[in-house]
Amino acid sequence: MFIKLALKSLLNRKGSVVLTLMAMTISVFVLLAVEHIRYQAKENFAKTVSGVDLIVGARTGSLNLLLYSVFRIGSPTNNIAWESFKQIANNPQVKWAIPITLGDSHKGYRVMGTTKPYFEYFSYGNQHKLKFDQGSAFNQVFDVVLGSDVAKELGYSTGDAIILSHGLASTSFSLHDDRPFTVTGILEPTGTPVDQTLHVSLEGIEAIHINWRQGVKMPGNKMTEEQIEQLELKPKSVTALMLGLKSRMATFHVQREINQSVREPLLAILPGVALSELWQMMNILENTLLLVAILVFVAALLGLSAMLLSSIRYREAEIRLLRVVGAPSVFLFFLIQIETLMITIVSLILGAGILAISLAVAQDFLISRFGLPVSSNILSESAAYYALGIIAASIVIAIIPSLKAYSKAKINI
Amino acid sequence: MSISLKNVYFTYPDAPHRPVLNIPCWTVAPQEQVFVHGPSGGGKSTLLNLLSGMLVPSQEGQGGQGEVSILGKRLDKMSQRQLDRFRANHIGYVFQQLNLIPYLSSVENILLATYFSAHKKARVKSADVEKLLTKLNISPDDWSKQIAKLSTGQQQRVAIARALINKPELLIADEPTSSLDQDNRDNFMSVLVSLVAENKITLVFVSHDKSLSRYFNRIDALSDISCLSGARGCS
Ligand SMILES: Nc1ncnc2c1ncn2[C@@H]1O[C@H](COP(=O)(O)OP(=O)(O)OP(=O)(O)O)[C@@H](O)[C@H]1O
Ligand SMILES: [Mg+2]
């Protein structure tokens, strides 16, 4: 009867209740969305790279180096000479060294030149290795391995031919159309920028730039594939290196050595440290967003409270009547609380539902546009805490109108 | 006695020096049907609220708090919670208007009244509700209609059903007919009087409309019950 009374009373005040419900739903949506994306971003962020002890690039800011080598954001200022790579790779402390070369793209996705050990040593998340969903690593000069999103979005499978473009714009007119690549492998999804990358060998990168000067295709007689394979395709420079060391203890030592190298100005960074630095910078933004979301929620709660408060004036006869049939004053207190709770829970369900649906819809966009893999499963521990917090806050706020109803009931007639 | 008031003095807290009621002694026997008339603003509603325990008598000088005894129970000695329960279980109340929650149906309103009378809740069946509504000339089509969609006359009759569902020993009516036209008023009064007699209920009915006095066997003027200036004591 109690629940029914509250429900019918809310239905009776449809107009103001629906508006309040909308305000609450929107605020719950914003709050949960900010928290969810924050949580997901942090998760993804921390797991973009692991098992790499040092990242080496031309001397620049450490964040810049991290951004272009790991997140494929921005572009390198300078390259590393091949000789420097050789020298670092030969350092007795270095277990493995993987060179990477960036600069070309395919339909908006970045192309990365690397060597075969990349697929063996690179890891992400909790020391997960890269795995092949289809095919295997590249063997020939014109082989390419696709990240899972690239394959999924562009609908490629092994055996397909792909034309790379020079530069990064997706509508780049300077296509390497004389040299199609063949898809030999597709990686399993990782939830990292690897998914949006096309991997080719360093030789492949060199081969498509034969006959190119200063970023422009030179007219001339086209070489056949056989001719190219005869050539020694030795790269002159690479964009960055990923290093694995024999012993973690040597990290700072090797880092210092590289940073002080005399051959050319180089920078070595610890990916973990750089990642947390970057995260710290994003923290401010993130906390600001959260604060705004909380303020929006508080505003909606105050609206709810105001709506209930004004409803009490209009329900004075109802309160008196309930008292006359023997309802204790606290009944009125709990009646208002229950009404609040109903509005809050409905808006919680609606807000969460809308969030899950919009995430499912926006998922592809977030991935392809920002490389941000956000799952549409919003049920997490922190979301549960937020839901409890939302309910608790609404109960606290509803004390104001509830006490008003209580005192109205107390004073009688 | 169903009702026995002794030395009951009442002022509203916001006007502590203007007594509204001062009742040296007033009693009503079981099953008596009393009509109390008095001018508007005379304190009729206040008197009824004292009888139902919605208001409690004020302290008067050294005289202490007066006695309000209903069905042999001293309301002035009860706690708030006991008063609420007593009211739910033993007293029916009909007002001038807004007797029912407008967004509930007749049946829901009546069941709501049973919700608070703990020990009677179990005994009230929907058959009882239907019987009562039939007796009050409410057609079955209207039982589950929202109250707001019923006519004023129908609403007041449903209000009687709501007041009687818990089988109270005392029914209090505060000008229940003032919003009704002549025909509805006669209809209402005859139904009320016959139900009250049939169920052996004590009735206190207040109104400023003396023409209603023909339905009652005892008629009191408020000015005789309450003497705001002058003698006191139970005669
Ligand atoms: N809640 C209240 N607070 C303060 N004064 C009140 C309150 N209710 C009534 N009064 C005052 O008490 C006096 C008696 O009021 P009451 O409502 O009992 O009169 P009544 O006889 O029922 O009048 P009516 O026939 O118009 O209903 C009036 O002067 C009124 O102004
Ligand atoms: Mg009155």
From TrEMBL, chain A:
Residue span(s) of domain ABC3 transporter permease C-terminal: 291-408
Residues covered by the MacB-like periplasmic core domain: 18-205
Any Gene Ontology CC annotation: plasma membrane
Keywords from the named record: Cell membrane, Membrane, Transmembrane, Transmembrane helix
Principal place of residence: membrane
Pfam families, A to Z: FtsX, MacB_PCD
Membrane-traversing stretches: 15-34, 288-309, 330-363, 383-403
Subcellular locations according to the entry: Cell membrane
Membrane topology category: Multi-pass membrane protein
Protein known as: FtsX-like permease family protein
TrEMBL record, chain B:
Cited Gene3D superfamilies: P-loop containing nucleotide triphosphate hydrolases
Domain ABC transporter: 3-235
GO cellular component, one term: plasma membrane
InterPro entries cross-referenced by the UniProt entry: AAA+_ATPase, ABC_transporter-like_ATP-bd, ABC_transpr_LolD-like, MacB-like_ATP-bd, P-loop_NTPase
One matching Pfam family: ABC_tran
UniProt keyword annotations, A-Z: ATP-binding, Nucleotide-binding, Transport
Signal peptide positions (record): none
GO molecular function, a single term: ATP binding
UniProt KW Transport keyword: yes
SUPFAM superfamilies in the cross-refs: P-loop containing nucleoside triphosphate hydrolases
Presence of keyword Transmembrane helix: no
Protein name: ABC transporter ATP-binding protein
Organism: Aliikangiella coralliicola
Classification of source organism: Bacteria, Pseudomonadati, Pseudomonadota, Gammaproteobacteria, Oceanospirillales
